[in-house]
Amino acid sequence: MTTLRSRYPQHTWEPVTIGCSGAGVWRLTGSPAYYLKTVENSTELAEEAERLHWLRAQGLPAPEVVELGGDERSSWMVTTAVPGRSLAELGGDDRIWGFREIDALAAITRELHALPVADCPFDRTLDVVVPQALRNAEAGLVDETDFDEHRLGRTAMELFEELEATRPAHEDLVVCHGDLCTPNVLLDPETFAVTGLIDVGRLGVADRYNDLALTARSLGPTSAQRFFDSYGEVPVPERLAFYQLLDEFF
């Protein structure tokens, strides 16, 4: 971290606590402004950087990767700071959004889901993700204290048994963000244009409900219904439940 600070000596470092990615995140305030994400040594950030490059190449709004590196203790990624505020900030603690914010979220979701699946090099289908969920559970990497409230008190392996028992037989494949919740979508608060999709480490080809389920949970019931109406989907409760359950492992 000392090495990184020496590269941005004119910037003010502010920790970012909104969201729950598990990474360390700082806003580097200066001219220009950046965001820094750090994780313990892994390939995680390199994979996210690939996805950011790809997403920008498709014409969708996302930060530009400025620097990617690491040392014996951690890996890091520095990106440009895209303008705008997250939907989580705009909704406040009460999670109340206007129609224009929800409609903007639905529109960018439709645009993402309309990208050609054959052009996306990242596989997040159930054949890939369910084995990852099992590996995470067996390795003790699933935070059982952070389950959705109605699952608290259960173990990761108990949840995995439920996951296997409720796995859908069919996937409606699109290009998914993978963690499409309100902290990860930035809007211009004046025009309501989406200015950035962030935290795209799980972007890839998956069932559209991989996004829809997490968006619905993040919005809450009232705003979720508006979102589904604007997106153009009648929600299927069983599919929502499965993909919300799957998210517990990541």
From TrEMBL:
Keywords tagged on the record: Antibiotic resistance, ATP-binding, Kinase, Nucleotide-binding, Transferase
Domain Aminoglycoside phosphotransferase as annotated: residue spans: 13-243
Domain of life: Bacteria
N-terminal signal peptide: none
Cited SUPFAM superfamilies: Protein kinase-like (PK-like) (SSF56112)
Alphabetized Gene3D superfamilies for the sequence: 3.90.1200.10, Phosphorylase Kinase, domain 1
Keyword Protease: no
InterPro entries referenced in this protein's UniProt entry, alphabetically: AGP_Transferase, Aminoglycoside_PTrfase, Kan/Strep_kinase, Kinase-like_dom_sf
UniProt KW ATP-binding keyword: yes
Pfam families according to UniProt: APH (PF01636)
Homology family: Belongs to the aminoglycoside phosphotransferase family.
NCBIfam families, per the entry: APH_3p
Cited PANTHER family: 3'-PHOSPHOTRANSFERASE, PUTATIVE-RELATED (PTHR21310:SF41), AMINOGLYCOSIDE PHOSPHOTRANSFERASE-RELATED-RELATED (PTHR21310)
Protein name (record): APH(3') family aminoglycoside O-phosphotransferase
